[in-house]
Specification:
alpha+beta
């Protein structure tokens, strides 16, 4: 997209992104949802879908939370109002919804998370809450009333003893009714409260925002798993008799810091790990798509033949496609958690970008992308489209 309604993407990024919320009317004029409410309820019954049901009323207690997959009878017997079904990663499950997610490619690939879809009959809501990441709330079906407060929440005060995280002290300072095609953008930690006015579906485009703790915990977990018991330990063969046994000397602290630095690796090692971590398939239901030992020879022949006959390669999972520059001028290309080093930057930019992946476009880069494409087809990050 170049514009969000009447607002250019460039102006949006300068004025609003990570700064302040904004209501964007008519971003998708004449919008027709690619799926119906019944489609979404059917998805919530699929074993590969991550789904939830929140019942404000009609459950065993107020605001009861249930996790899917559900049986069809469970969803067909729900009350007429005041409940919500949410399904994560609908962009992976429904190709047309992936097309909608592609419209937000003005944000870097690795920052995109998924497209979550919620359905609620009249009065359905998940309560007042905040998210720790940016989100575009696209009205896809029916109408929803949104109330927000423009002041970011510094410390959450939640209603106690509830299945869902609901703010105890929410007070809106702005309120709108969204119709299909309207979009509400919210930066992190902006409190919001949406209530369905009629049968209503909202499409939520979410973004990744890892914390230092997230990254460190995962890195340390992997370092621990890959380490061995024979790794070098702290040693001090030239230790002199201690005059103050309680003192941790500067030299000792320095050696310990050096051990940690060596364990974490140099910049190249850390960059490679970050790239692989950030592009891995992020939900268990998609682990089946990839197997590093898989023989992709037949796939390689198939995609070349298909492209020669006019097909293209479709980016099926954008967050799993990224690259970063190497000091020597080459690029490291990341595909579904696997790194391909020494790739020409122009080739990496093509595979991870927005231009069509046709036979002619790929031919300009020779075989530089062949191994990465084979892997991307095996993982489901790419697929052949007629």
């Amino acid at each position: 997209m170049t514009h969000l309604g009447d607002l250019s993407v460039a102006d949006f990024m300068t004025t609003y992104w990570q700064k302040q919320p904004v209501l964007l009317r008519g971003v998708f004029p004449g919008f027709a949802s690619p799926i119906t409410p019944q489609d979404l309820l059917s998805l919530a019954c699929e074993p590969d879908a991550t789904s939830r049901l929140i019942m404000e009323e009609g459950g065993d207690y107020p605001w009861q939370l249930h996790y899917g997959p559900f049986e069809p009878d469970e969803l067909s017997d729900l009350p007429k109002s005041k409940w919500t079904v949410l399904v994560q990663e609908v962009d992976r499950l429904v190709p047309a919804m992936n097309d909608l997610l592609q419209r937000f490619r003005f944000v870097p690939n690795w920052r995109l998370d998924d497209l979550m879809v919620s359905y609620a009959p009249e009065g359905g809501t998940v309560g007042a809450h905040i998210d720790n990441y940016d989100v575009f709330l696209i009205q896809g079906w029916g109408h929803r009333r949104w109330g927000i407060n423009h002041t970011p929440v510094e410390e959450e005060v939640l209603v106690p003893d509830m299945d869902v995280s609901m703010l105890a002290d929410f007070e809106a300072d702005a309120e709108w009714v969204l119709a299909p095609g309207d979009v509400l953008y919210l930066p992190p930690r902006i409190a919001h409260y949406g209530v369905a006015i009629d049968d209503c579906m909202t499409f939520s485009v979410g973004f990744r925002a890892p914390s230092p703790q997230d990254l460190l915990l995962k890195l340390l977990e992997e370092l621990t798993e890959s380490g061995d018991d024979d790794s070098e330990r702290y040693s001090d063969p030239n230790l002199a008799p201690a005059k103050a046994p309680g003192l941790i000397a500067d030299a000792e602290l320095g050696r310990l810091r050096a051990m940690l630095t060596d364990a974490l690796g140099d910049r190249a090692t850390l960059d490679a790990w970050l790239g692989q971590y950030l592009t891995r398939p992020r939900r268990p239901s998609y682990d089946d798509y990839y197997d590093d030992d898989e023989d992709t020879g037949d796939d390689a022949v198939d995609w070349r033949a298909a492209l020669a006959q006019g097909a293209t390669l479709c980016r099926r999972s954008v967050p799993e496609l990224a690259f970063f520059a190497q000091p020597d001028g080459h690029a490291t290309l990341l595909v579904s958690g696997t790194a391909f080093a020494d790739v020409p930057p122009e080739a990496a930019a093509l595979l991870t970008g927005t231009d069509a992946l046709t036979a002619d476009a790929l031919a300009a880069h020779g075989d530089a992308l062949d191994a990465a494409i084979d892997h991307a087809l095996a993982t489901g990050a790419l697929e052949v489209a007629a």
